[in-house]
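Minutes, project huddle
Topic: does the predicted pose make sense with 5-O-phosphono-beta-D-ribofuranosylamine bound?
PN asked that the exact inputs be recorded in the minutes so nobody has to dig through chat later. Recorded below.
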Amino acid sequence: MSKAKVAILISGRGSNMAALVYAAKAADCPYEVVLVASNDPEAAGLDFARAEGIATFAHSHKGMKRAEFDAIIDAEIRKAGANYIALAGYMRLLSPEFVSGWENRMLNIHPSLLPKYKGLHTHERAIEAGDTHGGCSVHIVTAELDDGPVLGQTEVAIIPGDTPDDLAARVLIAEHQLYSRVLADWVNNEKQ
Ligand code: GRF
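Predicted holo structure (tokens), as shared on screen:
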């Protein structure tokens, strides 16, 4: 069976994107990465993607209307032949048009146990709340921020004395494992 084609959107270092790319090297992985796109031409993850021989597209969103910028990204993704999108540290709110155009075809990874701690500073908030665990979630992207149906989560124990950075580093390890597994399951289910 042919592989699902995934476009990954990043804004920064792209470690989750790298994890998805490495997982895709396995012969039995049901997806391939056809494009890495960014709203920041300086995003470090773009160098990684280029070195791995993956097509990249970068365009700054600065000075553009949200919908106008999203239309440019959307056109590139479709040109690349992608039928799924994985957001991986993509620090842009998406326009309703873009989200509805990829309904049930776009996933995101978030560094908390959703529905807890949507938005930013998730690790700090979990520690301050006295939680025993932080973690990460992969969810379907809907119009509301960090709000779509959760497809998978990994709990990460908070160690007494953890700083937000300590916790973030361990959650990131869990993120890298969770995302590729959930994405693979998701595209497998969708293909049936
Ligand atoms: C990750 O923690 C991810 O959960 C969040 O942003 C961070 C991106 O890191 N959405 P990276 O660019 O994948 O390394």
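Observations noted during the meeting:
- Residues 10, 12-16, 88-89, 109-111, 172, 175 surround 5-O-phosphono-beta-D-ribofuranosylamine (CB under 6 Å).
- The chain has one domain: 4-191.
No decisions taken; revisit at the next huddle.
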